[in-house]
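On clarity, I found the account of how folds are encoded harder to follow than it need be. Since the whole study asks how a given chain folds, the encoding of that fold should be made plain. For illustration, here is how one protein appears when written out as sequence plus structure tokens:

:::
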Amino acid sequence: MPRITAARKSARRRQLVEAAWRCAAKVGFGDLTVDDICAEARLSKGAFYLYFAQKLDVLLALYEGDADQLDELMAKLDAKEPDHRLRLRRYAHAVLNRGSEPSRVQVGADVWTAMLTEPQIRRAITQRMQARRARLRSWIESAVAEGELVDIPANAFASILLALADGLLIHGSLDPTAFRWANIGKAVDVILGGISA
């Protein structure tokens, strides 16, 4: 029996994860089955279990992939945007723009629900959140030090920005008609403008 190359294994795993994203846009993760993911990916259950021990591992992979994208965004902003206030604004808008994607909203709500009962999901969220808060805090501290923002408690404001994004995703999953993401972006601009030095 021929061995599967590393590139082929990676492509198959990605195929399953992408199928799970598409399925998540249609139903919540709790109602999603391994059969649904396999049918969407056009792969067998045997293939699924080569890459994931259980359905929860797929949710973790969706979360980690999404978190990786946010981390990459923050790294790019760190490297290319010298204005700390503008960096915060661009980060906030990028996070809010993700809220217009139904699959991200659904997966975000599912991840937060799973966090209540699944320690590995809770650990993953905690680690990412701590790192993201530290980076936002450093941006805020730099903005205050350079006179771009008024003197504001950096850790508290970083926590508010993180909670704002996650809370809005959860609210969006409960009632997609409750607000418009474009208007949330305008409100964030007003808030950032209000604390500008």
The longest helix spans residues 119-145. Residues 1-52 form a domain with the Arc Repressor Mutant, subunit A fold (CATH 1.10.10.60). The chain has a mean pLDDT of 89.
